[in-house]
Amino acid sequence: MTGTAEAKLKELGIEIPIPPEPKGNYIPVVGIGNVLHLCGHVPQSADGKLTKGKLGVNMTVEEGYQSARLCAINIIATLKRELGELDRIKRIVKVVGFVNCSDEFGDQPKVINGASDLFAEVFGEAGRHARSAVGSNALPLGIATEVECVVEIIDS
């Protein structure tokens, strides 16, 4: 069954990929009651290619925005695998985004908007969330962005 969120993804031309496998010794989702804590998701395309780079050095804000958006697509893929139906998502509660950037770079919020905007587009008001956007001098595997979130779900 395709729900509202999946119809919106289709309308946006986004195909839900197979979620990337963890890059270390952890699991992608931990549930406590009807709250899911998701691990940091990387900007990995369906073909396995990672978006690598450093904002303020060799990437533009728009490229960083697209990288964060790709992280959000992978979060949605993980949620789909975990829940079966995306319409079980009651609210995206909190997003934390990390940006690989130079010391002088200050547009982390604009970059992480790539994830935030997608959640709002797909889930409407339920996709609006609290957020932190943090600059980092390096991220694992040289990736440009990493995004994690906390999600409230509807009991099945």
Write up what this structure looks like.
By secondary structure, the chain is an alpha+beta fold. 30% of the residues lie in helices and 25% in strands. The protein is built from three helices and five strands, in the order H-E-E-H-E-H-E-E. The chain has helices at residues 4-11, 61-83, 108-123; strands at residues 29-32, 35-41, 89-100, 130-136, 145-153. Strands 1-2-5-3-4 form a five-stranded mixed β-sheet. The chain is globular, with a radius of gyration of 15 Å. The model has no long low-confidence stretch (mean pLDDT 95).
Task: Describe how the helices and strands are arranged.
Blueprint: H1 4-11, E1 29-32, E2 35-41, H2 61-83, E3 89-100, H3 108-123, E4 130-136, E5 145-153
Parallel strand pairs: 3-4
Antiparallel strand pairs: 1-2, 2-5, 3-5
Question: What key phrases describe this protein's structure?
Answer:
5 strands, alpha+beta, single chain, 156 residues, 3 helices, 5-stranded mixed sheet, globular
Main sheet makeup: 5 strands, mixed
* Mean pLDDT across residues: 95
- The fraction of residues assigned to DSSP E strands is 25-35%
What is the strand arrangement across the widest sheet? 1-2-5-3-4
Number of helices: 3
How much helix is in the residues? Answer: 25-40%
Q: Unreliable runs, pLDDT <50, ≥5 residues?
A: none
What distance separates the N and C termini? 15 Å
Q: Give me the secondary-structure category.
A: alpha+beta
What characteristic shape results from the CA principal axes? globular
Number of extended strands: 5
- SSE arrangement, N to C: HEEHEHEE
Rg estimate, integer Å: 15 Å
